[in-house]
């Protein structure tokens, strides 16, 4: 992961990679975790500052730990 990218962008890319590895669309993930699809898209693009609560929701829905997302983001 490019260390020059903002942390929000790096986490977003890590979440997108985890979602794509599960072959889920943003819409399918939104149904799983209870967050809006447009919010998930904004998080993946690094446009939203993700709360810890929502990071945990997303990680659980993707069957990974929040810490694994952070490690994959290089944080």
General shape: globular
Q: Please mark out the parts with pLDDT under 50 across 5 or more consecutive residues, or reply none.
A: none
For the secondary structure, the number of strands is 0
- How many helical elements? 5
Largest sheet: none
In whole angstroms, the N-to-C terminal distance is: 10 Å
Task: Quickly describe the structure.
With 75 residues, this protein is an all-alpha fold. It is 64% helix and 0% strand. α2 packs across α3.
Structural write-up:
With 75 residues, the chain is an all-alpha fold. Helix content is 64%, strand content 0%. It is globular. It starts with 6 loop residues before the first helix and ends with a helix. The model has no long low-confidence stretch (mean pLDDT 95).
List the helices and strands and how they pair.
Elements: H1 7-21, H2 26-33, H3 37-44, H4 52-61, H5 66-72
Keywords:
75 residues, mainly alpha, 64% helix
């Amino acid at each position: 992961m490019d260390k020059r990218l903002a942390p929000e962008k790096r986490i977003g890319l890590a979440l997108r990679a985890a979602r794509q590895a599960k072959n889920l669309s943003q819409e399918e993930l939104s149904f799983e975790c209870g967050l809006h699809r447009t919010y998930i898209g904004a998080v993946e693009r690094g446009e939203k500052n993700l709360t810890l609560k929502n990071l945990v929701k997303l990680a659980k829905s993707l069957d990974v730990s929040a810490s694994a997302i952070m490690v994959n983001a290089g944080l």
